[in-house]
Amino acid sequence: xxxxxxxxxxxxxxxxxxxxxxxxxxxxxxxxxxxxxxxxxxxxxxxxxxxxxxxxxxxxxxxxxxxxxxxxxxxxxxxxxxxxxxxxxxxxxxxxxxxxxxxxxxxxxxxxxxxxxxxxxxxxxxxxxxxxxxxxxxxxxxxxxxxxxxxxxxxxxxxxxxxxxxxxxxxxxxxxxxxxxxxxxxxxxxxxxxxxxxxxxxxxxxxxxxxxxxxxxxxxxxxxxxxxxxxxxxxxxxxxxxxxxxxxxxxx
Length: 252
Fold this sequence. Notes:
The chain is an alpha/beta fold. Helices cover 23% and strands 30% of the residues.
């Protein structure tokens, strides 16, 4: 089985500053590329910050030219990149995770289990897209989605071996929600990746501690509190973890 490397971007956004946030995403992407990452996942609403009041005016089309930077980066690094943003479909706004695949495909997922004030702003997503990469099948989830056992079971039954989740987990909620993720990994024999914020956003103090669990529910790696790229690598059936703070140094 070939080596596969997956990573969480434990990242902090500037509220509503899309141009700056794109540039900051690219810093994480360059770091991940230096460390030969195949798949990099950012937190919930990473492109805008978790700023619900700003979401309707900041919502972007899937074809917005500002997103071309991610298409180029995915191709150049041969890496799948998953970002978070408010996505306009023309008729509604979704709280979305948008995957950029190396060959140029863009694949959007809309959060299905909306939480609190999100319900006033966004429409729930209706489907669970899977994408294949490096002989793996990846399913996406966003924050409160991970509380729903049916969603994790559906991903597993449709062939996913990685559940990739972009989150905003507070210090108070971290223990409960990370326990859900470990449980789904074990119960459904899927690797689970969780990308959380490093800095406060939307009035929440994020816990950091992005993490990856293997298909037995064992935690492979967990980040700290700062901006970091949290990586899990599998070679054969063996996993190992590593954490690289930003600014990122090249691999020696």
